[in-house]
Amino acid sequence: AAKGGKDLSAFVITLGRAGEDGKSFMLKDTEQTFQGFAGADYNLMDSLSMASNIDKQQVTVDGVDFQTFDIDSPEFRYLASIAVKDGKVFALFCRCPSKTFKRNEKDLRHMIETFRLL
Questions:
Q1: CA distance 31 to 27
Q2: Which residues, at least 6 apart from 95, have a Cβ–Cβ distance to it below 8 Å?
Q3: What is the DSSP letter of 69?
Q4: Which range among 15-19, 38-42, 81-85 shows the weakest confidence by mean pLDDT?
Q5: I need a labelling partner for 32 at 20 to 30 A (CA). Which of 13, 17, 81, 104 fits?
Q6: Structure confidence by residue, pLDDT tens digits, 43-89
Q7: How far is CA 117 from CA 4, 25, 54, 57, 63, in A?
Q8: Crossing angle (nearest 10°) for helices 42-50 and 30-38
Q9: Minimal CA–CA distance to 90: which of 24, 42, 41, 20?
């Protein structure tokens, strides 16, 4: 099991286009979508600005495209997976202090790799 103290976390964000009948999200610009999430989390914003490496990939599972991110910064390591289904955005974020990432890497990557939309 992952061990990293109070700074180790995983959370899911779901967004719908409330009040806009027939409107839906599309992940045309994953950078902009990711920056939108970062605007709500100052640790993520700092990690993006100080990152030594940002790895992005696209994976398709059961017909759903997932954009995955790995942000390596001095203080925190973020892994994320973002997808759109039925017009809604679903995102899983895993955050770990950089100093304990290696110890927790296997569990965190497993969470990101197995994130699915039903």
A1: 9
A2: 7, 8, 9, 10, 43, 44, 76, 77, 78
A3: E
A4: 15-19
A5: 104
A6: 999 999 999 999 999 999 999 999 999 999 999 999 999 998 887 88
A7: 27, 15, 24, 18, 10
A8: 130
A9: 24
* Average pLDDT for the chain: 85
Spatial CA neighbour of 32 closest among 50, 10, 56 = 56
pTM value is: 0.84
Of 81, 45, 85, nearest in space to 66 by CA? 81
Is residue 63 within a helix (H) or strand (E), and if so which, with residue range? Answer: none
Q: How many CB atoms lie within 10 A of CB 68?
A: 20
> Cα–Cα distance between 92 and 115 in angstroms, integer?
7
